Structures are given as structure tokens and as C-alpha cells.
Amino acid sequence: MRKLTYYVAVSIDGFIAGPGGEFDRFLFEGDHAAGIGEKYRGTAPTELAERAGLPIEGGPFDTVLMGWNTYAVGLPELPSPYRHFRQVVFTRGHEAPTGSDDVEFTDRDPVEVVRELKAEDGKGIWLCGGGALAAVLRDEIDRLALKRNPVLFGDGIPLFEGRDYAPADFRPTGITSYESGVVLEEYVRG
Hints:
- The radius of gyration is 16 Å and the shape is globular.
- The chain has five helices and ten strands.
- It has helices at residues 31-39, 46-52, 68-72, 110-119, 131-136, and strands spanning 4-11, 15-17, 61-67, 86-90, 103-106, 124-129, 143-149, 157-158, 170-177, 183-189.
- The chain is an alpha/beta fold.
- The protein has one domain (4-189): Dihydrofolate Reductase, subunit A (3-Layer(aba) Sandwich).
- It comes from Microbacterium murale.
């Protein structure tokens, strides 16, 4: 069965974006970039990876899930941000933009969709954001891969929106610290 991994950048205080949805304080360059980029190969948007000469094949995922707000970060320039993956965007009320023919937009229950995806053959499934979608899918998340950045936002979009869910145990499988200050924390549901 395929696994769902919530792989995301996060601040020390647990936010995946600031109060206005900004994430420009996260470190995109530094000694962490090569190691994390190789381990999670293919997680850069296709066009950006091609321009930078980054490999997109051979990574752990073949499907990416996003909420509308995460998807919309790249609009209008990147209407199909991860062309090398199957792309599923959960939305209730937004129309598919021009150029997004290979993106699946759905208003279906995310839990049902994820369970169907897990039952299919293929590589891992990457949940790349956002916090509201992660909260809905919390019981379906098999792995966490957190790129903990050495910044405090104080407020913003939390890793998991809302607090009305049951506790869940995860056990660490790896913690890698980089001189840049970024720490890759990896966990499996335990």
C-alpha cells in the first residue's frame, strides 16, 4: 500500500507560512538544499527544476496533493506546477485556470480520495500543503518530513490547522541538522 507523506517547510514555532501566507523567510539555499533535495527528489516545481538543472526523476513520490491556497501560490505563472507528478488539488469553489489541464481539481472528501490513491499501485503520495488539508488528512498521514527552519513567525498558517483532533503518535526515524540552521525531522506513524 502506498504511503502519504506530509513533507513541508515549517518554522520553529510550527507555521508553514506567515500571517499573510508568506514563506519567504524559509531558507531555499544553503548546505541543506542538496541533501534534502536528493532525498526528496522531484519536489521542486517542474519548470523551476528544469531551469536549475535539478533532477525530477527517481524520487519517492509520483502524486502530489494540495489545498487551493497552496496551489494558488504559483498562479498565474505555474498553472501546472508539478507536471512530472499526478497533481490533485482540493477546492470547493475555484475554477481550473487556463493551462491546468493535467491537474485534477476535486471537491470530494480528501480522506476518501487519499484512501483510493493509497490502494493504487505506485510510489508515495506527497501532501505539500496546506495546514487545513493536513488537519483533515491527519489520520491518513503515514510519515512526516519537516524542514524545520530557524525562524519564528509568531502567527500564520499552522502545520495542522485547528486543534480539535485526537492525539496521534509518531516516532522519529531521522533528524539531520545542517549548518544553515535547517533541521530535517522525519517521523513515521507509530
